[in-house]
Amino acid sequence: MDQGHSCEKKSQDTLYKIGMFAAMNRVTIKALRYYDEQGLLKPACVEENGYRYYLLSQCADLHQILALRNMEFSIEDIRQIQAGKPEKELLQKKKQQILKEIAELTAKLAQVESYLLEEQVDSATHVLIKSIPEVIVASMRVTVENYNALFELMPQMGAEMERLGCECAMPEYCFTQYLEPGYKEEQILIETCEAVTELKQDSKLVSFQKLPEIKEAACIFHKGSYDTFPRSYAKVLKFIEENGYEICGNIRESYMDGVWNKDKEEDWLSEIQIPVHKIK
């Protein structure tokens, strides 16, 4: 960077003070100083009094910087281009990044529109993708005649767990796993599970196992009677389909509040948890 008392003597081309150069290019003086500090666009020369001067030919360099910044290229990206890296290579990379962001935003928009179509939107209608931690469980695997028979197992299982000296984990996690794909009205193979603090010796009724973490599960809360579960299932399954996921494990129904601690059915609270992964 040239310095001296008279920049004009060092160039046959017209030199423009920073204020004029900024006005010509519709940028701020602050922006030009920033690009100078970052080494992207140095003034043609600087007087000893600190006045910066630019050449008209530097407008093209500035326009390239501004265009790349408008496309959200980083300062480091622009440095690489100025150092000789093919601009087309970085443009292709930026294109893929933008397409990915568009896909993600489109999925979010579809989710918002889906909620807007609901007659009533509340916390129980929202689907969330989250992980389910690894858990040690006491479990009973049985085939039940119908869904009503499912809850008749709970007291029997609780009594056996007490006999075996089981201590329930905190926070409590009681759930049923459906071990067959698809929906059945009768002869349903299920596994009812209760999170416990340690593995015990299996008995004739209850066995113990460590279930691995579920990396991604589509989850929805369900408030009210179990008879209305199909409505919540419809919502979460629609979410899975519309957002490019597929089911990859046993569906769980987690029971938080129910007949054992709530007098009214409308206060019962459950969560449907469906293991999923993105379709490539």
TrEMBL record:
Any one Pfam family match given in the protein's UniProt record, by short name: MerR_1
Domain HTH merR-type intervals: 15-84
Keywords: Coiled coil, DNA-binding, Repressor, Transcription, Transcription regulation
Domain of life: Bacteria
Gene3D superfamilies: 1.10.1660.10, Regulatory factor, effector binding domain
Coiled coil: 88-115
CDD domains, A to Z: HTH_BmrR
Protein name: MerR family transcriptional regulator
Lineage: Bacteria, Bacillati, Bacillota, Clostridia, Lachnospirales
